[in-house]
Amino acid sequence: MTKTCKAHTAQRRRRTGKYKDPQSSWTKTTKGWEYGRKVHMSLDAQNLLIQDWMTTPAAVHDSTVAKAQIDSGQGYKYFLADSAYDSQQIYRYIFDCSSMIPVIDTNKRKGVSLEKQCQARWLGIQLRQIYAEKYKNRWEIERTINILQEYFNLEYIWYVRNRNYDAVLGLAILAYNLCVMFNILNSRPHRKVADIIGCY
């Protein structure tokens, strides 16, 4: 979640209905109601490089960009995702359009009784259990987001010239990837970016 204006400004614009960014919207998070854009990223869990990214209004569900993320992961062996991606349609798309093994957290609100599931989701739940150890790597995306917010100011981007938010996000992600590649080439821990950022 990246915020495209201050909270009090968003509240004022909500009352008047005069928003400045048509690609931002309200959504309820663990922190309460927030206004901005949602950033969706695909990460290589081995070298920790961001492979693809896109933004949507904050209210848009993660699953709506699933097909694009699956397409960007062609050539990888596993597709790791949280329970927002646990659906028959997403499993079917992975099985039909890629060679990846889906390791997707099970949405318990949909039920986990294997006898009651459609074929693709039934198989997906089985694969989640078989490859449970692989799912631990999914948290690498959460760590990456935390780094982007802490060192690249990705969470608050309201001071942007001409409101070109996508350019700011793209530059932050490019800078992160360059730091990771520098670390790989110099045999440093991949996520050691604080000292690099501190040079500027």
The major β-sheet equals:
3 strands, antiparallel
Uncertain regions spanning at least 5 consecutive residues: none
Gap between N and C termini, in Å? Answer: 26 Å
Question: What is the molecular shape?
Answer: globular
Oligomer: single chain
Strand content: 15-25%
Helical fraction: 40-55%
Structural class: alpha+beta
GO molecular function: DNA binding; transposase activity
Pfam family, one: DDE_Tnp_1
Protein name: Transposase IS4 family protein
Keywords: Membrane, Transmembrane, Transmembrane helix
Describe the 3D structure.
By secondary structure, the protein is α+β, with helices and mostly antiparallel strands. It has one domain (7-197). The chain has helices spanning 7-16, 66-72, 88-97, 119-130, 132-135, 139-151, 165-185, 194-197, and strands at 25-29, 32-43, 50-57, 78-81, 101-104. A three-stranded antiparallel beta sheet has the order 1-2-3, with helices on one face. Strands 4-5 form a two-stranded parallel sheet. The radius of gyration is 19 Å and the shape is globular. The mean pLDDT is 89.
Keywords:
8 helices; 40% helix; globular; transposase activity; DNA binding; Transposase_11; transmembrane helix
Task: Reconstruct the topology from this structure.
Layout: H1 7-16, E1 25-29, E2 32-43, E3 50-57, H2 66-72, E4 78-81, H3 88-97, E5 101-104, H4 119-130, H5 132-135, H6 139-151, H7 165-185, H8 194-197
Parallel strand pairs: 4-5
Antiparallel strand pairs: 1-2, 2-3
Helix pairs in contact: 2-3, 3-4
